[in-house]
Fold this sequence. Notes:
Low-confidence stretches: 16-27
Strand content: 5-15%
Structural class: alpha/beta
CATH topology: Oxidized Rhodanese, domain 1
CATH class: Alpha Beta
Shape: elongated
Number of helices: 5
Radius of gyration: 21 Å
Mean pLDDT: 85
Number of domains: 1
CATH architecture: 3-Layer(aba) Sandwich
Largest sheet: 5 strands, parallel
Strand order of the largest sheet: 1-5-4-2-3
Number of strands: 5
CATH superfamily: Rhodanese-like domain
Amino acid sequence: MKTIKFVIMISMLALFCLVIARDILDTDSPYKDVSPQQAMRLMKKYPDIKIIDVSGIYDKGHIPGAVNYFIGDGSFDQAINKLDKKSRYLIYYHTTKPSVKAAKKLHNAGFKKVYRLQGNYFAWVQAGFETAHKPTI
């Protein structure tokens, strides 16, 4: 009887450890951080990649071809339902926290091909890549 209790206790402990280890060792990141150079390579390799600027200052400068769904006013949340989960997405902002939040939201909604521009828009500009501005009247 003591042996059976011991085996059950050891089995439960092992199962618990496996569950914890799976969470700790999970390498399936919700998104992939990419440098501006890697982002440019992705854009060339996959010309249909969707670029999303989640900032509120899109008009002051953005990556050419990017669409703007501001994360701060709910536009991004509304857009998620309309986006194709099979497409690739490059997310950026002008600071890190909101771009991470947006990338995680896409992942949590079932999107599998999500990239986040490491260093955000500033890194893009610093790398010397082309930018676009909304013309002012």
